């Protein structure tokens, strides 16, 4: 059973330790100094940025992070995605990670994604869909999205998080249940 809460500054050491893990570092390519974590996660933690940085707890234990946002709050990113696939008004996006290596490959990520997508429909009643770009090389990530019910709706060139990756991304989408999308 997953529970969720927004990150707080007291979570920064945990986020930093997760970002330093090889399986996270490979795909997130994030600076891991205490200053960088505070700089990059602080605005969301303080409510100064429109994104929601959510800690996922499985049976009370923190296991992952989901960054959820409305694409309209990030016009440049919205334009980048809209150059590849149609993006409906109110569309949401997520980015995610499982923190500890021992929690990978056990279905926790898939269950976490299923939970956050379900919560999105309740917490964002105007959202018609969730649209998620994934670098094509990150098979485990896009396979988890497929297991949750997202479908690949496009392939395009986007700036990768990690400069070692090719620009090719798959775009995945799930529509609000009952919307006929």
TrEMBL record:
N-acetyltransferase domain: from which residue to which, for each copy? 2-177
Q: Which Pfam families match?
A: Acetyltransf_8
The alphabetized UniProt keywords are:
Antibiotic resistance, Transferase
| Record-level GO BP terms | response to antibiotic
Q: Name one GO molecular function term.
A: N-acyltransferase activity
Is the keyword Cell cycle in the record?
no
Q: What is this protein called?
A: GNAT family N-acetyltransferase
């Amino acid at each position: 059973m997953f529970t969720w809460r927004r990150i707080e500054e007291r979570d920064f050491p945990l986020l930093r330790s997760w970002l330093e893990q090889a399986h996270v570092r490979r795909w997130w390519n994030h600076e891991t100094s205490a200053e960088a974590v505070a700089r990059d996660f602080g605005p969301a933690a303080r409510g100064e940025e429109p994104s929601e940085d959510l800690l996922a707890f499985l049976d009370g234990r923190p296991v992952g992070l989901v960054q959820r946002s409305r694409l309209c709050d990030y016009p440049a990113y919205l334009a980048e995605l809209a150059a590849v696939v149609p993006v409906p008004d109110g569309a949401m996006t997520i980015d995610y990670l499982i923190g500890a290596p021992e929690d990978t490959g056990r279905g926790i990520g898939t269950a976490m994604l299923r939970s956050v997508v379900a919560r999105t429909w309740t917490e964002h009643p105007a959202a018609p869909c969730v649209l998620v770009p994934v670098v094509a090389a990150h098979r485990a990530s896009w396979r988890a999205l497929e297991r949750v019910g997202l479908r690949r709706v496009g392939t395009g060139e986007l700036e990768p998080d990690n400069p070692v990756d090719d620009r090719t991304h798959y775009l995945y989408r799930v529509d609000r249940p009952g919307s006929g999308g």
